[in-house]
Amino acid sequence: MSLQEEFNQHAEKVNKLTQATNEDLLILYGLFKQANFGDVNTARPGIFDPKGRAKWDSWKSYEGKSKDDAMTEYITKAKQMLEANGIA
Fold first, then answer.
1. Structural domains in the chain, sorted by start
2. Is 24 left (phi over 0), alpha (psi -120 to 50) or beta?
């Protein structure tokens, strides 16, 4: 299985999570965006959009990370979260 296929598989499985912290979800979001779109290419949301700002900040924190590295880290984090939720 290629890295891209494994990444896609875990991205689907993550949608089945019922218990996850906001911090963990933001990590996954940032890694997912970096793997799929590369470095941030939008302006930071305004102060009246705290959720959008948190997501943007998470993505920005992975700036410069290669696609393969972002996918590998995403898979690792997803596996940890899925195991903690009893999802194989």
1. 3-84 (1.20.80.10)
2. alpha
32 or 1: which leads in pLDDT: 32
How do residues 6-50 score in pLDDT, each as one tens digit? 999 999 999 888 889 999 999 999 999 999 999 999 999 999 999
In the prediction, which pLDDT does 86 show? 84
Q: Are 26 and 59 in contact (CB under 8 A)?
A: no
Residue ranges of the alpha helices (H) in 1-88? 3-14, 22-37, 50-60, 67-84
Ramachandran area for residue 52 (φ above 0: left; ψ -120 to 50: alpha; else beta): alpha
Cα angle value 6/11/15 (rounded, 5°): 145
Distance CA 1, CA 75 (A): 13
